[in-house]
Amino acid sequence: MTEIDTNNIQTTTLASMGRRARRAARTLSVLGTRDKNEALSAIARSIEDNRALILSENARDVEAGRSNGLSAALLDRLTLNEDRLAGLAGDTRKIAELPDPVGSDIAGRVLPNGLRLTKRRVPIGVLGVIYEARPNVTIDIATLCLKTGNAVILRGGSETIHSNRALTKIIRGALESTGLPTDAVQYVDNPDRALVTQLLQLDEYVDMIVPRGGARLHELCRKQSTIPVITGGIGICHIFVDESADLERAVDIVENAKVQRPSVCNALDTLIVHRSVAADFLPACVERLARSKVKIRADAESAALLKRHGHGTNVKDAGPEDFDQEW
């Protein structure tokens, strides 16, 4: 009996993906704007034409997530529907309408000896993007990479495996239909977590790692990657209500920012209120938020004010760590 080293097989597979992505990146780097935009338009049409397939595969992920005890917020992030698919197709067309950044000059100067120096935007090459339970990111990243002339290797969360397989198939089909290399977009569809580390160390082929997720994912990438990593800030979103604000409209804005879709990164986390209007604004705002079962964590001064106005039931004292928390 021959023993098979599955880890070596996985590494070989990733290396093969890297080689194919590198070849595709060379083609994309010199691709004209019209060709890229035609491919983006084809992706948008393919999303619309394959709605039934996408929603069917997404329903499998949602059902599995529900069975595995995913929170309501994660299930919401995971779910696709007709409106969200229409939004993805529309956003893809908007990316096609954007100016092509490749080749544009962004800075320049002439040296004393007459030599002209110019800083010009060029594609990075091959990106490795690691993300969590959001199938829409598959479309977002693939289309942005295409517009900027970069190839990409995608590694989504295991919660979205069926959705991402369907979306990647659709993207690659659209690329093929417009004569572009399908290996410009590849998806690591094996949920083995060891592959994340292997992707982070695929420096022979991958030029940049972009994590899309929480602080733990960002930290993992920074510690284990042998490739440059771009990490964004965690989505802690603030609203400041000034003394000059229309307080009635400000309550509407806060309510919308917090409860319209709490699971997204730009949902409201922290509310800062000018002291001179706090007594009028905070009780009205908290009363409105209570209708949607929003729990409040307030600093000592705000908590005391709210309790004096009879709003102590859903108000807790905030600790220092609460202001660094993405809720």
Explained architecture:
The protein is an alpha/beta fold and 327 residues long. It is 50% helix and 14% strand. It has twelve helices and ten strands. It has helices at residues 6-29, 33-49, 51-67, 72-78, 82-97, 136-147, 161-177, 194-200, 215-224, 247-259, 275-290, 300-308, and strands spanning 105-110, 116-120, 126-131, 151-155, 185-187, 208-212, 237-241, 268-273, 296-298, 315-317. The protein has a four-stranded parallel beta sheet with strand order 5-4-3-6, with helices on both faces. Strands 1-2 form a two-stranded antiparallel sheet. Strand 9, helix 12 (300-308) and strand 10 form a beta-alpha-beta unit. Helix 2 packs across helix 7 and helix 3 runs antiparallel to helix 7 (161-177).
Residue windows where pLDDT falls under 50 for at least 5 positions: 1-9
Order of the strands making up the biggest sheet: 5-4-3-6
Question: How many strands, which pairing sense, and closed or not: the largest β-sheet?
Answer: 4 strands, parallel
Mean pLDDT: 90
List the helices and strands in order: HHHHHEEEHEHEHEHEHEHEHE
Determine the structural class based on helices, strands and strand pairing.
alpha/beta
